[in-house]
């Protein structure tokens, strides 16, 4: 039913984040691009675990012989979300320190001021 749509969305999000990461000169926009790339990876992991007609991955609730979705990509996605949250918090705190020190978030301006 869903076909390849999630993989198309993953590709579009990943490319959007990658293009923004390489073309942006603002540190906040770079942090947002990294978050978008992380979201694309999470959608990819969840899409890998999908099974048509699958039920919850709990054996005693699913019943005997039923098809279940894969629980490993779900666990990996939860771990990736926690890691992305910590990484984003660290990145934004470093960006705040750069702004306090240099008074700008433009990469070229920071390089020029640094010497």
Automatic annotation (TrEMBL):
<keyword id="KW-1133">Transmembrane helix</keyword>
<dbReference type="Pfam" id="PF00420">
    <property type="entry name" value="Oxidored_q2"/>
</dbReference>
<dbReference type="GO" id="GO:0005886">
    <property type="term" value="C:plasma membrane"/>
</dbReference>
<feature type="transmembrane region" description="Helical">
    <location>
        <begin position="75"/>
        <end position="99"/>
    </location>
</feature>
<keyword id="KW-1003">Cell membrane</keyword>
<protein>
    <submittedName>
        <fullName>Na(+)/H(+) antiporter subunit C1</fullName>
    </submittedName>
</protein>
<dbReference type="InterPro" id="IPR050601">
    <property type="entry name" value="CPA3_antiporter_subunitC"/>
</dbReference>
<feature type="transmembrane region" description="Helical">
    <location>
        <begin position="6"/>
        <end position="23"/>
    </location>
</feature>
<dbReference type="InterPro" id="IPR039428">
    <property type="entry name" value="NUOK/Mnh_C1-like"/>
</dbReference>
<feature type="transmembrane region" description="Helical">
    <location>
        <begin position="30"/>
        <end position="50"/>
    </location>
</feature>
<keyword id="KW-0812">Transmembrane</keyword>
<keyword id="KW-0472">Membrane</keyword>
